[in-house]
Amino acid sequence: MGVRNRVAIITGSASGMGRDTAFMLAKNGAKVVINDIAEEKIDQTVKEMRDKGYDAIGVVADISNKAAVESMVSQTIEAFGSIDILVNNAGMERAGSLRKLSEQDWDITVNICLKGPFLCSQAVHGHMVEQKRGRIINIASRAWLGGPGQAPYSSAKGGVVSLTRTIALELGKFGITSNCIAPGLIATPLWDGLPEKTKSYLSAKQPGGSIGEGDDIANTILYLADDETSYVTGQVLYVCGGRSLFSA
Description:
This protein is α/β, with parallel strands linked by helices.
Protein backbone atom coordinates (compact mmCIF):
# COMPACT_ATOMS: atom_id res chain seq x y z
CA MET A 1 0.00 0.00 0.00
CA GLY A 2 2.97 2.35 0.27
CA VAL A 3 2.30 5.73 1.91
CA ARG A 4 -0.62 6.91 -0.21
CA ASN A 5 -3.05 9.07 1.81
CA ARG A 6 -0.97 8.62 4.94
CA VAL A 7 -0.20 11.75 6.98
CA ALA A 8 3.42 12.52 7.78
CA ILE A 9 5.03 15.07 10.08
CA ILE A 10 8.66 15.71 9.13
CA THR A 11 10.53 17.93 11.57
CA GLY A 12 13.17 20.28 10.22
CA SER A 13 11.75 19.86 6.73
CA ALA A 14 12.03 23.33 5.24
CA SER A 15 15.52 22.50 3.97
CA GLY A 16 18.08 19.73 3.58
CA MET A 17 17.27 16.05 4.12
CA GLY A 18 13.94 16.88 5.70
CA ARG A 19 12.82 18.81 2.64
CA ASP A 20 13.93 16.01 0.32
CA THR A 21 12.00 13.56 2.48
CA ALA A 22 8.85 15.68 2.40
CA PHE A 23 8.91 15.79 -1.40
CA MET A 24 9.63 12.06 -1.62
CA LEU A 25 6.70 11.12 0.62
CA ALA A 26 4.38 13.59 -1.10
CA LYS A 27 5.36 12.31 -4.54
CA ASN A 28 4.29 8.87 -3.36
CA GLY A 29 0.89 10.10 -2.19
CA ALA A 30 1.38 11.13 1.43
CA LYS A 31 -0.01 14.30 2.99
CA VAL A 32 2.84 16.14 4.66
CA VAL A 33 3.40 18.64 7.45
CA ILE A 34 6.43 20.88 6.93
CA ASN A 35 7.91 21.85 10.29
CA ASP A 36 10.77 24.20 11.03
CA ILE A 37 11.54 27.35 13.01
CA ALA A 38 12.07 29.48 9.87
CA GLU A 39 8.63 30.64 8.74
CA GLU A 40 9.77 32.04 5.39
CA LYS A 41 11.45 28.75 4.45
CA ILE A 42 8.35 26.83 5.49
CA ASP A 43 6.10 29.04 3.38
CA GLN A 44 8.37 28.65 0.36
CA THR A 45 8.55 24.88 0.71
CA VAL A 46 4.79 24.53 1.14
CA LYS A 47 4.20 26.74 -1.91
CA GLU A 48 6.53 24.63 -4.05
CA MET A 49 4.77 21.47 -2.90
CA ARG A 50 1.31 22.81 -3.58
CA ASP A 51 2.42 24.05 -7.00
CA LYS A 52 3.20 20.40 -7.78
CA GLY A 53 -0.24 19.36 -6.59
CA TYR A 54 0.93 17.89 -3.31
CA ASP A 55 -1.14 18.11 -0.12
CA ALA A 56 0.94 20.01 2.44
CA ILE A 57 0.69 22.42 5.33
CA GLY A 58 3.38 24.25 7.30
CA VAL A 59 3.75 24.56 11.05
CA VAL A 60 6.31 26.74 12.82
CA ALA A 61 7.35 24.95 16.01
CA ASP A 62 10.41 24.61 18.21
CA ILE A 63 10.54 20.87 18.78
CA SER A 64 12.36 21.30 22.09
CA ASN A 65 9.24 23.02 23.47
CA LYS A 66 6.49 20.66 24.67
CA ALA A 67 3.62 23.11 24.15
CA ALA A 68 4.80 23.92 20.61
CA VAL A 69 5.04 20.22 19.74
CA GLU A 70 1.59 19.46 21.09
CA SER A 71 0.19 22.39 19.11
CA MET A 72 1.83 21.05 15.93
CA VAL A 73 0.23 17.65 16.46
CA SER A 74 -3.18 19.24 17.11
CA GLN A 75 -2.89 21.34 13.93
CA THR A 76 -1.98 18.22 11.96
CA ILE A 77 -5.00 16.29 13.18
CA GLU A 78 -7.26 19.28 12.56
CA ALA A 79 -5.99 19.61 8.98
CA PHE A 80 -5.72 15.95 7.97
CA GLY A 81 -7.58 13.90 10.57
CA SER A 82 -4.73 11.59 11.52
CA ILE A 83 -0.98 11.14 11.99
CA ASP A 84 0.50 8.01 10.47
CA ILE A 85 4.18 8.83 10.07
CA LEU A 86 6.54 10.84 12.26
CA VAL A 87 10.01 11.60 10.95
CA ASN A 88 12.20 13.08 13.69
CA ASN A 89 14.68 14.74 11.37
CA ALA A 90 15.47 18.15 12.90
CA GLY A 91 18.94 18.45 14.34
CA MET A 92 21.93 20.68 14.91
CA GLU A 93 25.44 20.45 16.31
CA ARG A 94 27.76 22.48 18.50
CA ALA A 95 31.19 20.95 18.05
CA GLY A 96 34.50 21.40 19.83
CA SER A 97 36.98 19.69 22.12
CA LEU A 98 35.59 18.42 25.40
CA ARG A 99 37.40 21.00 27.54
CA LYS A 100 36.24 23.92 25.39
CA LEU A 101 32.56 23.05 25.01
CA SER A 102 30.16 25.11 27.10
CA GLU A 103 27.11 24.00 29.02
CA GLN A 104 25.03 25.92 26.48
CA ASP A 105 26.63 23.94 23.63
CA TRP A 106 25.58 20.73 25.35
CA ASP A 107 22.06 21.92 26.19
CA ILE A 108 21.08 23.24 22.76
CA THR A 109 22.44 20.19 20.94
CA VAL A 110 20.78 17.67 23.25
CA ASN A 111 17.52 19.65 23.36
CA ILE A 112 17.11 19.65 19.59
CA CYS A 113 18.64 16.27 18.75
CA LEU A 114 17.25 14.15 21.61
CA LYS A 115 14.63 15.99 23.64
CA GLY A 116 12.86 16.99 20.42
CA PRO A 117 12.38 13.42 19.13
CA PHE A 118 11.22 12.38 22.62
CA LEU A 119 8.61 15.16 22.79
CA CYS A 120 7.38 14.56 19.24
CA SER A 121 7.12 10.79 19.75
CA GLN A 122 5.30 11.34 23.02
CA ALA A 123 2.88 13.77 21.37
CA VAL A 124 1.83 11.36 18.58
CA HIS A 125 1.78 8.34 20.91
CA GLY A 126 -1.89 8.49 21.92
CA HIS A 127 -3.19 9.03 18.40
CA MET A 128 -1.13 6.23 16.87
CA VAL A 129 -2.07 3.83 19.67
CA GLU A 130 -5.75 4.65 19.20
CA GLN A 131 -5.63 3.96 15.46
CA LYS A 132 -3.35 0.93 16.02
CA ARG A 133 -0.98 2.01 13.30
CA GLY A 134 2.07 4.21 12.99
CA ARG A 135 5.61 4.68 11.78
CA ILE A 136 8.17 6.57 13.87
CA ILE A 137 11.45 7.15 12.04
CA ASN A 138 14.30 8.83 13.86
CA ILE A 139 17.37 10.36 12.25
CA ALA A 140 20.49 9.59 14.26
CA SER A 141 23.97 9.74 12.72
CA ARG A 142 26.99 7.58 12.16
CA ALA A 143 28.45 9.86 14.83
CA TRP A 144 26.51 8.00 17.52
CA LEU A 145 29.43 5.57 17.41
CA GLY A 146 31.58 8.42 18.72
CA GLY A 147 33.53 11.22 17.12
CA PRO A 148 36.31 13.57 18.23
CA GLY A 149 34.94 17.02 18.99
CA GLN A 150 31.37 15.73 18.97
CA ALA A 151 30.62 15.00 22.62
CA PRO A 152 27.14 16.64 22.70
CA TYR A 153 26.13 15.48 19.23
CA SER A 154 27.39 11.91 19.55
CA SER A 155 25.78 11.60 22.96
CA ALA A 156 22.45 12.92 21.72
CA LYS A 157 22.45 10.67 18.67
CA GLY A 158 23.34 7.68 20.83
CA GLY A 159 20.30 8.60 22.90
CA VAL A 160 18.19 8.66 19.73
CA VAL A 161 19.23 5.06 19.00
CA SER A 162 18.20 3.99 22.51
CA LEU A 163 14.95 5.95 22.28
CA THR A 164 14.18 4.20 18.99
CA ARG A 165 14.65 0.77 20.53
CA THR A 166 12.57 1.64 23.59
CA ILE A 167 9.66 2.93 21.49
CA ALA A 168 9.78 -0.24 19.38
CA LEU A 169 9.48 -2.37 22.50
CA GLU A 170 6.70 -0.30 24.07
CA LEU A 171 4.52 0.30 21.04
CA GLY A 172 4.99 -2.78 18.87
CA LYS A 173 1.82 -4.38 20.22
CA PHE A 174 -0.16 -1.43 18.86
CA GLY A 175 1.01 -1.86 15.28
CA ILE A 176 3.58 0.95 15.59
CA THR A 177 7.11 0.51 14.31
CA SER A 178 10.10 2.57 15.40
CA ASN A 179 13.31 2.63 13.40
CA CYS A 180 16.41 4.75 13.14
CA ILE A 181 18.50 5.91 10.20
CA ALA A 182 22.15 6.76 10.77
CA PRO A 183 23.31 8.93 7.84
CA GLY A 184 26.91 9.55 6.98
CA LEU A 185 28.09 12.49 4.91
CA ILE A 186 25.15 13.93 2.98
CA ALA A 187 25.08 16.90 0.62
CA THR A 188 23.07 19.43 2.65
CA PRO A 189 23.35 23.19 3.29
CA LEU A 190 25.44 22.28 6.36
CA TRP A 191 27.88 20.36 4.18
CA ASP A 192 27.99 23.19 1.64
CA GLY A 193 29.09 25.58 4.38
CA LEU A 194 32.17 23.56 5.37
CA PRO A 195 35.65 24.69 4.31
CA GLU A 196 36.95 22.91 1.21
CA LYS A 197 39.85 21.48 3.21
CA THR A 198 37.41 19.85 5.62
CA LYS A 199 35.28 18.50 2.77
CA SER A 200 38.31 16.93 1.13
CA TYR A 201 39.46 15.38 4.40
CA LEU A 202 36.05 13.85 5.13
CA SER A 203 35.41 12.69 1.57
CA ALA A 204 38.75 10.88 1.55
CA LYS A 205 37.51 8.70 4.41
CA GLN A 206 34.52 7.47 2.39
CA PRO A 207 35.03 3.90 1.11
CA GLY A 208 33.53 4.96 -2.22
CA GLY A 209 35.15 8.37 -2.22
CA SER A 210 31.87 10.29 -2.48
CA ILE A 211 29.17 11.64 -0.21
CA GLY A 212 25.46 10.88 -0.29
CA GLU A 213 22.52 12.91 -1.53
CA GLY A 214 19.35 13.87 0.30
CA ASP A 215 17.34 11.36 -1.73
CA ASP A 216 19.50 8.55 -0.36
CA ILE A 217 17.97 9.32 3.03
CA ALA A 218 14.52 10.11 1.64
CA ASN A 219 14.30 6.77 -0.16
CA THR A 220 15.26 4.93 3.02
CA ILE A 221 12.62 6.81 4.98
CA LEU A 222 10.06 5.94 2.29
CA TYR A 223 10.91 2.27 2.77
CA LEU A 224 10.52 2.41 6.55
CA ALA A 225 7.31 4.45 6.31
CA ASP A 226 5.62 2.00 3.94
CA ASP A 227 2.49 0.25 5.19
CA GLU A 228 4.01 -3.06 4.14
CA THR A 229 7.19 -2.62 6.21
CA SER A 230 5.55 -3.80 9.41
CA TYR A 231 8.09 -6.41 10.48
CA VAL A 232 11.06 -4.06 10.60
CA THR A 233 11.27 -2.31 13.95
CA GLY A 234 13.85 -1.27 16.53
CA GLN A 235 16.60 -1.21 13.92
CA VAL A 236 19.45 1.17 13.07
CA LEU A 237 19.96 1.40 9.32
CA TYR A 238 23.22 3.01 8.24
CA VAL A 239 23.02 5.10 5.08
CA CYS A 240 26.63 6.23 4.98
CA GLY A 241 28.39 4.71 2.00
CA GLY A 242 30.18 2.28 4.29
CA ARG A 243 31.65 4.95 6.57
CA SER A 244 30.31 3.16 9.67
CA LEU A 245 32.62 0.20 9.02
CA PHE A 246 35.47 2.04 10.71
CA SER A 247 35.64 4.83 13.27
CA ALA A 248 38.93 6.58 12.46
